[in-house]
Amino acid sequence: MTEHLQLAGYFGATHRWEPDALTWVPMTERVSQAGIVRTWEGGCRVETLLSLADLETTYQKFLSLYDVFMWMVAKGKVSIPENEAYRVNGRYYPSVTYILSQVIAKPGLLNWSYEGGVMAGLQADSVGCTPEEIAQAIAVKTRLEDKSMKRTDPEAKAWFDVTTKLHEAGLSTNAKRDGRAGQGTSIHKNILFYLQGKPVSVGEAPEWLSKALTHFAKWAGKVDLKAAYLEQKVMNDDFGWAGTCDFMGWANLPNMGIVEAKEEASHVAS
Fold first, then answer.
1. Tell me: the pLDDT tens digits for 45-104?
2. Range of the domain at 245
3. Residue 43 domain-assigned?
4. Which of 66, 73, 111, 146 has the fewest CB atoms within 10 Å, i.e. the most exposed one?
């Protein structure tokens, strides 16, 4: 649902940034559909796809969340970051992502937190921690999460000692998450180059990157993907929020589907 709301926030943009003119210009294009595409070494597929009716409905829900966010700002519970990228006429606009992160709890983050405790219990002995140390660390973690203990309390050291050892051994959830995040960043960057028409050589790239780019190229050809704007900054000047949309353009949506790994990876470009 969070992804739907994020797309709706972009859908509600009234202006886009024109870098050549160094100014915000009104949005004249009418979006008919919006989606989120996942690309990985195993394939490329549309994971979220909203029709115009879906977007209009979800946009109303986003507006309700925006009202909650602004109430939180007025009560001093959250603040609006001073992000230069989203400063409009001297006023800082919160990003769509930031608004949602402050109002909606992310289940994924809760899962990571839970998994962190489980992984500590299952793997801590492999880095030299005793069962007693593991039990104490998990007890501390529980107190940190329910706010009955501060991270700066001396007792909190029990948890951080264990997680530091796990991280250094490459066994922590953070270490694994950071590795996947790094892969995602590399894939995103190279897809951007590809869509910009820049040469993208994958001959010496890691296998996971080579496969991911090949799957995206096949999928893009299948849906006749054409970009109008990439990494486009947008904002809503009526209410006051902004964001950066990865892609704005055209595609043969009925052909949107999945390209799975069924053959060896090949060069996207050389």
1. 888 899 999 999 999 999 999 999 999 999 998 899 998 889 998 999 999 999 998 888
2. 2-108+173-258
3. yes
4. 146
DSSP H helical ranges for 124-172: 131-145, 157-168
Q: DSSP code of 95?
A: B
The DSSP call for residue 254 is: G
Nearest to 35 by CA among 25, 26, 27, 45: 45
Looking at residue 69, its pLDDT comes to 94
What's the first-to-final CA gap in the chain, in angstroms? 39
The CA distance from 164 to 191, in Å, is 34
The helix (run of H) or strand (run of E) holding residue 108 is helix 107-123
Q: Is residue 145 part of a domain?
A: no
Residues 6+ positions from 205 with CB-CB distance below 8 Å: 190, 213
For residue 140, tell me if it sits in a domain: no
Considering its fold, how many domains does the chain have in total? Answer: 1
Residue holding tokens 């595409």?
37
* SS3 per-residue string spanning 9-51: HHHCCCEEEECCCCEEEECCCCCCEEEEEEEECCEEEEEEEEE
Of 34, 54, 55, 35, the C-alpha closest to 44 is 35
Does residue 130 lie in a domain region? no
C-alpha distances in Å from residue 166, one per residue of 122, 142, 174: 11, 18, 9
Return the pLDDT at 266. 33
Q: List strands edge to edge, sheet with 43-51.
A: 33-40, 43-51, 258-260
pLDDT at 31: 87
